[in-house]
Each structure stands twice: as C-alpha cells, then as structure tokens.
Amino acid sequence: MRTTQANRRQFLKAAGPAIAMPYVITSSALGAGGRAPASERIVMATIGCGGQGTGDMQGFLGFPQVQMVATCDPVTGHRENAARIVNDHYHSRDCKDYNDFREVLARPDIDAVLIGTPDHWHALITIAACKAGKDVYCEKPECLTIKEGRAMADAVERYGRVFSGGSQRVLGDYGDWPRLVRGGALGEIKEIYADCWGPSGDCYLEPQSVPPGVDWEMWLGPAPWRPFHDSLISGGFRPYRDYSGGGMTDWGAHRFGAAMFAAGLHRTGPVEVIPPDGKDHKLLTYVFANGTRMYHGGTGDITYKGTEGTLPGRHKTPTARVDMEGYRGEGGIFGDFLHCVKTRELPFRNIEVAHRATTVCHLGNIAYWLNRPLKWDPVAEQIVGDPEANRWLDRPKREPWAI
C-alpha cells in the first residue's frame, strides 16, 4: 500500500497540471446558465455571413444546445461582425473567423455547418461538408442548377449526413392550409397559383475597384469571372444568372415548395413546363402527371383551386384531421434540424424535398430563357428531346472548383 501511494504521488508530481486539469469541471460544461452540457451540445459554424446568413446564425444562437464556434466569409467585415455577435452572446472571445470555408471543414470539433452564402456556392460547400463528416443546414435555394441539386442529394446519402434546406415557409407561413388541402377540404386539386418574381439574367454592372478586406476571387469561386461591384456582396446578387435564379428560385423555393407539399407533389416533378405565349397560356404553366396544373403568378401568394372549394375562399371542413409529416423537435425549422442532428431522422425539408422544389424553379427559368415548352422526365431528371435545353441543367465551373 505504501509503495502504491508513493508511486501515485510521484506520478502526479511529474504530470503536474496536465493531469490535474481534467478534474476541474466548469459550470458551463455541466450546463449552467440555461446551456446544454458539453456532451449534449451541437458545435456549429456559419459559412456565409451576409444578411441572411447572420440572421440564421442568430436564430441558431437562441438554442441552448448550439455552440457556435466559427464564422467564415470572404468579406472581412461580414465574418468579423458575425464573430462579434457570437462572442457577445457567449461573453467570450472563442469564436474564430475564417476567409476560406475549407479551414472550417477541417476542424474536427465542428458537428454541423450553416451555409448562408450566395446561391452559386451552396452545392460545392454542402458536398465538401458532407465529405468532411458535417451535417448541413443550407439556405434556399439550395442549388444553382438541377444537376447540382442531385449531386447534393447523392452526397448526403453517400456520407450519411443530415441535411435541412432553409425554407421555413410551408407550415410556418400557411398554418393549417396543408392539412386542409391534404385532408380533402378542396376535393381534388386542379389548379395552383404560386406568385413570385421572375427569372435572373445577365449581369452588366459597371466595374469597380476591389476594396480592402474583400477576397473577390473567393467570393466568385465557381462563377465566371467578372469585375467587382459592391452591390453583389451586399445581397444584390439575385437578379444575375451567374449567382442565382432570381425571384423564381428565391421566393419560388418558398411558394412552389409549399404548394407542392400541400398538394402531395413534393417528391416528384412536372412532366411539362409551358412558358406564357400571350394566347392559350397567359402564365408559365407546370403540368403534373396527375393532371394538376401549377401557374407562376396569381394574387401575390398561393391559391389552390379544387373540385369542391378554393383557398383562400370557401371550402368544406375535412371529416378528420390529417396526420402528416411535419417538423420534429421544437422551434420551427431550426429546431427540426437540431433534433435530427441528434436522432439522425430526416428533417422536414430534407434534401430530396428541397431538390424537387428548386427543380421546379429552375425548369421555369429554362422555359423562360429559351421561350419554349419543355417535356420533363421527373424520374430520369432529363428534359426530353431537347439537347439545348438539357445543357441548362448544369453550368461549367471556374477552375479549380468542381463537383
């Protein structure tokens, strides 16, 4: 016994603080102050710290199980501002800011990333994050092209990651409407009107000098090179095709996605897309295999027309409340994602649902850009009999970026 005690004293004396430190457990590690214990926390980073990215980040900071540890953006002011918000929230200086997202993904302590970059970066960072073993919450529209969306879905499945798209406006905006529609309050759905702005186009902004603190090459990334303009780094990129699909993919991801979910079309796609011709087709028209028609336009939101009623408008009361897929956990789509990170369930807006919603938006843009009808195979995900239109399913990427 005396020998054992002596050996232990000698060992502790030699090891010094290195062995003593683990026995000091802080109150924050145990979950004091409303925070989850360290073992229950989800360690996150924010990649893309403009207005939407930082806004989403602040939403995640409201969950005690989240520990935000890093911010990343090629605009120094954006990432430093986001890091300041995080550090003020935790009353610490532990959040580190990065210029290059690859440094963030290389950190083994990070469990999940929030991607709030411009649209042209979503797919590349999502796929890299999946390869790095991170779960992903990605703002809508989840991809710049249809092929990117499929590549994202393949990566999520291949690497076993949890992915949630960033459209919270299905149940969040429309309350009980999806249950009414699915419960038969309108009878058989015949027509849907989903209003949003139009497609993106070419960028003709005047060149400006790149200011200090902006890594313009990294901001452009896979997009074609063009001179700097300050509106692009200030949220004004959406009208331009190199970075976004315009209003069609911005609010279209919300409204087309919500309409397809309510009508039970959210796991498929249209079979035909017809642009307006000023005669038989006043609005861009999507035709689904079951005969439902969805139009781009209407009264400023979503309108459903069925055989026995309309929304908004008169409709019958369903005989039974519909038990349908919905958010898991608590706290809307953020809470849904965090719950699924822990349980490994499918989030409400999982990658397949997100991909189908954005596919509709992209197909609408292609029909507008080419000004001709498209036949779409939602299983093969190909435009039938139109090689030129099929080339729009993806875009070339500027080296060295590739999927």
UniProtKB/TrEMBL annotation:
Its EC number is 1.1.1.18. It comes from the Bacteria. PROSITE patterns: TAT. It comes from Aquisphaera giovannonii. PANTHER family: BCDNA.GH03377, OXIDOREDUCTASE FAMILY PROTEIN. This is Inositol 2-dehydrogenase. InterPro entries: Gfo/Idh/MocA-like_OxRdtase_N, Gfo/Idh/MocA_oxidrdct_glycsds, Gfo/Idh/MocA_OxRdtase_bact_C, NAD(P)-bd_dom_sf, TAT_signal. It is an enzyme of class 1 (oxidoreductase). Residues 200-403 form the Gfo/Idh/MocA-like oxidoreductase bacterial type C-terminal domain. It holds the Pfam family GFO_IDH_MocA_C2. GO terms for molecular function: inositol 2-dehydrogenase (NAD+) activity; nucleotide binding. Residues 45-164 form the Gfo/Idh/MocA-like oxidoreductase N-terminal domain. Keywords: Oxidoreductase.
